[in-house]
Amino acid sequence: MNFQPLTPELLVAFEAIVGPAHLFTAQRAEAAATADAYADYGRDHTEDLHFAPDVVLRPANAEEISQIVRLCHQHHIPVTPRGAGTGLSGGALPIHHGVVLSTERLNKIIEIDERNLQATVEPGVINQVFQEAVQAKGLFYPPDPASKGSCFLGGNLSQSSGGPKAVKYGVTKDYVLNLQVVLPTGDIIWTGANVLKNATGYNLTQLMVGSEGTLGIITRVVFRLIPHPKQDIVLLVPFRDQTQAAAAVSEIFRAGIVPSGMEFMEREAIEWSARYLNIPLNLPPTSPLTYLLSWMAMSWSSCIKMLSWCMACWKSMTSAKSCSPTRPLKRRNCGKYGATWVMPFATTLYIRRKIPSCPVPNCRPY
Question: Which residue has the higher pLDDT, 255 or 62?
Fold first, then answer.
């Protein structure tokens, strides 16, 4: 497509839509000594790439976005929707320059419907802020990308982001019921319905998820939620080598246990993480080189069952000469992380709340 350059008349029209405080150009940014902030709109976290936009617009709602997109469609101006800019695949890079349309002002949690386990939000809400808001009401939104403390939900939808908990709970697309979208023509549509089962017509909702803004601009989202888990635990299981750790993953699933997430970690990664979080693991110099980090959400009774199974599995896969899986479970206090249950050289279990005593037989204080 042959794109056209911006004209002064279009800039005046854009300014009338969003207001002068929410329209930025390179000239205005330089005059206001905000050139660095303006330059950030031309990059994301994809390597060291930068494409300068001709203008940055920060609309406040779907109606303003509709007017902007309609003008750009009529005058063949390229538009690049932008969330928080934390992506790694170049989705927010304005490679054709033109308009960068930022959704940072669409940052409201409109409603959390506790009875129907749904929430309606705008795309500029930060993932972790949303998670904490629904958790305060006893609900749970599982998708948690690595950048959850800064990424926008709109960007998560555009990229169909996942996260470690995808093992058990799935990714972003699995929690979307309905989307309000501004199409390239400026029309505003809803793609689905606020129900769990919607078999009518084309599945436009899932078509939009993962489309990276190429089919339309998401301006409102209806998510489904689930009850928040009763327990949030982490198991750290050491293995002599990588082959044993990898084999354990298959055995865990074959046993009917579905963890929230699993990570394959070398000893150095564990030590650096513990040092950063100020957790006194104090691993012996001769400890195994490979660790399997698994976290899951379950009841406390299920947790003990899981721990017992892990010990049996671990004992069958490792050598008793280098470690002792039959030694009693021990307890250590890890400050803000609550009680920490430590099976010396076997299994470390972090429980993110205070527990007065260990329900495992033969447990004694560390």
Answer: 62
> Whole-prediction pTM value?
0.80
The CATH architecture that domain 232-360 belongs to is 2-Layer Sandwich (3.30)
Give residue-wise pLDDT tens across range 4-27.
Answer: 999 999 999 999 999 999 999 999
Domain ranges of the chain: 8-102, 109-227, 232-360
* Topology adopted by domain 109-227: 3.30.465
Whether 158 contacts 174, CB under 8 Å: no
The rounded mean pLDDT for the chain is 82
Is a pLDDT exceeding 70 seen at residue 286? Answer: no
pLDDT class of 328 with cuts at 50, 70, 90: very low
Top-level class of domain 8-102: alpha beta
Rounded CA gap, 58 and 18, in Å? 7
Contact 210, 264 (CB under 8 A): no
Mean pLDDT of 129-150: 95
| Mean local confidence (pLDDT), 260-283 | 80
Only one residue has tokens 């513990």, namely: 274
Structure confidence at residue 238 as a pLDDT band (50, 70, 90): confident
Q: Which amino acid is at 68?
A: I
